[in-house]
Specification:
The chain has 249 residues and is an alpha/beta fold. The protein is built from 8 helices and 9 strands. It starts with a helix and ends with a strand. 37% of the residues are buried.
Length: 249
C-alpha cells in the first residue's frame, strides 16, 4: 500500500475494538455510516475526542441519551461536522436565543446518489432511474427524525440542522430524486424566526449547489473540503448545547 511506504509509522487496525491498544489517540473521526457511530461512540470517548460525520445517528433517541450521559462523564469531547450545512453557526445562534421558529431543508440528488432503507422509496427511485426523460420525484417530506431513518447516508445536513436548531421532530426535511442533477447536489435551506410583537419575522433562504465528480457520489466536492476544515477546528474550545457536550465545527 502506498500509504505504508509514505508513512511507515502509521498503525492500521484490523478491528475498531483494537483502538484500546493504541497508546496515544487525540481524535477519532467518523465519516462512514451512522451504525459505526451508534456502535462505537461510547467506547471511543474512553480513548479520545470524537468527530461525528454521520449525524443521522443522533436522530435515535435512546442512543442520543446514552451519548449525552457519556459526554457529561468523560474528559473527551464530541464534535459534529457541519458538512454541507451552510449557515450552521447562524442557525445555532438563533436557536440559543430562543428565536428560531421553523427550519425546512430540501436536498436534491441524482437517484444514483441515494442510499435508501425504505423499500417503497427505493422502488420510486428505481422507476426514476428507468425513465428516459429527466424528471424529479419527492421521495419524502416530513420530520427529520423519520427521514434520518429512511435515508441515513444522504441527509446528515438535515440531521445537523435539527441537532443545533429546533430538534428532529420539528425540523422538516424534504428529499428529492432528480435525474437531471448529474453534476451537482442541491440544498435549499429555509429558516424562519419567531414573529415580533408587530408581526415582523426574520427569514433566511439559502441555496447551495455543489459540484460532484459523479452522479453516484453521496457527498459533493465542497463537502469534503468542509470536513477537512472541521478536522482543523476540532482543537478549539467547546460549547454545550442541546444537552450534549458537542461543538459544531
Amino acid at each position: 500500500m502506498k500509504i505504508l511506504v509514505k508513512f511507515p509509522l502509521v498503525k492500521f487496525l484490523e478491528a475498531l475494538e483494537q483502538i484500546k491498544n493504541i497508546d496515544i489517540v487525540d481524535l477519532i473521526v467518523e465519516v462512514c455510516h451512522p451504525i459505526i457511530v451508534r456502535q462505537y461512540a461510547i467506547s471511543f470517548l474512553d480513548r479520545a475526542d470524537f468527530l461525528i460525520g454521520s449525524t443521522t445517528a443522533l436522530a435515535e433517541k435512546e442512543f442520543r441519551f446514552k451519548l449525552s450521559e457519556k459526554s457529561h462523564s468523560t474528559q473527551h469531547r464530541v464534535f459534529v461536522a457541519r458538512g454541507a450545512l451552510w449557515g450552521a453557526n447562524d442557525i445555532q445562534m438563533i436557536s440559543r436565543c430562543d428565536y428560531l421558529q421553523s427550519v425546512c431543508i430540501t436536498m436534491k440528488f441524482h437517484p444514483r446518489s441515494l442510499r435508501l432503507n425504505d423499500p417503497k422509496l427505493r422502488e420510486l427511485n428505481d422507476e426514476l432511474l428507468g425513465s428516459n426523460e429527466p424528471r424529479s420525484v419527492v421521495l419524502f417530506e416530513g420530520p427529520a427524525r423519520e427521514l434520518c431513518r429512511v435515508a441515513p447516508n444522504n441527509v446528515n445536513t438535515i440531521a445537523t440542522a435539527a441537532l443545533i436548531g429546533i430538534g428532529f421532530d420539528q425540523t422538516i426535511g424534504r428529499l428529492i430524486a432528480d435525474s437531471s442533477l448529474c453534476d451537482y447536489h442541491s440544498i435549499d435551506i429555509e429558516v424562519r424566526g419567531k414573529p415580533t410583537i408587530d408581526g415582523k419575522q426574520f427569514e433566511a433562504n439559502i441555496q447551495r449547489l455543489s459540484p460532484t465528480n459523479s452522479s453516484q457520489n453521496v457527498s459533493s466536492q465542497q463537502t469534503f473540503r468542509s470536513f477537512w476544515h472541521s478536522l482543523l477546528q476540532c482543537t478549539n474550545s467547546y460549547n454545550r448545547f442541546n444537552e450534549l457536550e458537542i461543538q459544531i465545527c
